[in-house]
């Protein structure tokens, strides 16, 4: 066998050193990168994907315009008003003008009470949200129902309406055009014993414009 001294030739020493440097460089690069040394030019295309982003680590100020829906709360209208029996009444309204072709999602909230009436009388309260352009209704949510009997005169009953998104008379979502102004209404329609009114305590309408109208 060759002695250890015979193996220490110049080529063997150089090749061994080169191997050590090559294999240790990756570990150094990962663990010893100076702060602020990696920028956008060092990242490959599509290197940062959704699974690599920690939940809750990106705030609203970091998102580009148009990523999230444009939102806003509608003004309360007619708080404390009477709702005539068997008659539709707009209880909250707002106008929206999309900056892009959009779909509309809307939410209604608040409370109402039955106002008077005799034994056996009842109110079937319907609430829905509709969107119109001028005098033409374009679509509405499915009506939500609530009931009040003669024992519920002083009870506050909830309003809860949502449309995701608001659709036409069929199942096609309403598409709002860029730069066009539309009216969104929260509507109450008390049925049942039509001779007796109901009472609106509060009503609020919120709308969201989503930019995925394609």
Tags for this model:
214 residues, mainly beta, Jelly Rolls, 2 domains, six-stranded antiparallel sheet, 11 strands, elongated
Molecular structure report:
With 214 residues, this protein is mainly beta. It contains two helices and eleven strands; from the N terminus they run H-H-E-E-E-E-E-E-E-E-E-E-E. The chain has two domains: 4-54, no CATH class; 70-210, Sandwich (Jelly Rolls), CATH 2.60.120.660. Strand 5 (122-133) and strand 6 form a beta hairpin. The protein is elongated, with a radius of gyration of 33 Å.
- CATH class label of the largest domain: Mainly Beta
CATH 4th-level superfamily of the largest domain? icosahedral virus
User: What does the main sheet amount to?
Assistant: 6 strands, antiparallel
Give the helix/strand class: mainly beta
Number of domains: 2
**Could you name the ranges where pLDDT drops below 50 across 5 or more consecutive residues?**
none
Looking at the overall shape, the CATH architecture of the largest domain is Sandwich
What is the CATH topology of the largest domain? Jelly Rolls
SSE order, one letter for each helix or strand: HHEEEEEEEEEEE
**Overall morphology:** elongated
What percent of residues are in strands?
35-45%
- What's the number of helices? 2
How much is the average pLDDT? Answer: 73
Alpha carbon gap, first and last residue: 78 Å
Write down how many β-strands occur, each being a DSSP E stretch of 2 or more residues. Answer: 11
Helix proportion range: 10-25%
